[in-house]
Amino acid sequence: MSLYCGIACRRKSFWCYRLLSTYVTKTRYLFELKEDDDACKRAQQTGAFYLFHSLAPLVQKSEHQYQAPQYSLLGLKPLGFGIQELERLLAKFGQDTQRIEDSVLIGCSEQHEAWFALDLGLSSSSSINASLQKPEMETELKGSFTELRKAVFQLNTKDASLLSTAQALLRWHDAHQFCSRSGQPTKKNMAGSKRVCPSNKIIYYPQMAPVVITLVSDGTRCLLARQSSFPKGMYSALAGFCDIGESLEEAVRREVAEEVGLEVERLQYSASQHWPFPNSSLMIACHATVKSGQTEIQVNLRELEAAGWFSHDEVATALRRSNPYPQQQNGTFWLPPKLAIAHQLIKEWVEKPACSTLPA
């Protein structure tokens, strides 16, 4: 009986293993690295590092695009900024290799090569000489530390996602080095998935602020608005932070009422996106329609610079513009770049205007 059970268990394990997808095995591997400091430290030995300086990622300019330094694989060994290269770099600039412990885990390849991010310009608990000199580092690394807000729309999707995740985690750790209850220094785990206060054992986890972004329609037109901080000529969907105690639906209705004085009748969830600016937000995109006959906009000038109704043809024309930063001429306007979820929300409406008339 025991032999049979052993065979059955082995067969079950075999089939369970065969049925696990690449996504599941990769996700479980990342979970292991987050929970096991020793496993994470071992992963650093064969991993690749994305470098930052004061939250600006190291990128290289290629024609009209930015690229994060590429990491190739020979077996499971990365080329580029592997740990040996990083240790050499830190030693050259008079830094202890213990600084590598300030890195955060940001993902892994399908072959389980772990990816980490390390900021060489932020102060930290593990380094006395907090900041390495930026110009010397750029010369050595043959790249430039560029503000992510400037580079993000000129990165490919993979690099944009990884660098956004990395910056958000690095910023969070920089801002949570002390316990809000005891005032004592907190300690990050090896992966950077949490911080713990040694004095009272309180665990702090990285967080995102929920933001609703809503494209309002009256059935034939959509409502676009701009803030004074937007680049000249850019219009987008309405957006605002969720208040404590609100549901998604309540937040959408309140934001639309606050910003343009309209009452939402129906809404439909579209998609979500992590957004690193200004301090890591979860953008929750929705389509909404307003009550028939109640389309007069009353702009809240404390929130917006302008808002207006735009026809299907006007918005479709704006989407077709190849230059994402056109010179504004004769009242023309432009829309957020393709990477932004606002662009996808507007594109959905243009391709299927009826999508915003469905009930919640």
TrEMBL record:
InterPro entries with a match to the protein in the record: NADH_PPase-like_N, NudC-like_C, NUDIX_hydrolase-like_dom_sf, NUDIX_hydrolase_CS, NUDIX_hydrolase_dom, Znr_NADH_PPase
GO MF annotations in UniProt: metal ion binding; pyrophosphatase activity
Subcellular location: Mitochondrion
Catalytic reaction list: NADH + H2O = reduced beta-nicotinamide D-ribonucleotide + AMP + 2 H(+); NAD(+) + H2O = beta-nicotinamide D-ribonucleotide + AMP + 2 H(+); NADPH + H2O = reduced beta-nicotinamide D-ribonucleotide + adenosine 2',5'-bisphosphate + 2 H(+)
Cofactor: Mg(2+); Mn(2+)
Keyword Hydrolase: yes
Entry's EC annotation: 3.6.1.22
Domain of life: Eukaryota
Pfam families: NUDIX (PF00293), NUDIX-like (PF09296), Zn_ribbon_NUD (PF09297)
Domain Nudix hydrolase: 206-333
UniProt KW keywords: Hydrolase, Magnesium, Manganese, Metal-binding, Mitochondrion, NAD, NADP, Transit peptide
Name of the top EC class for this enzyme: hydrolase
GO cellular component: mitochondrion
Function: NAD(P)H pyrophosphatase that hydrolyzes NADH into NMNH and AMP, and NADPH into NMNH and 2',5'-ADP. Has a marked preference for the reduced pyridine nucleotides. Does not show activity toward NAD-capped RNAs; the NAD-cap is an atypical cap present at the 5'-end of some RNAs.
Protein name as annotated: NAD(P)H pyrophosphatase NUDT13, mitochondrial
Origin organism lineage: Eukaryota, Metazoa, Chordata, Craniata, Vertebrata
Record gene name: NUDT13
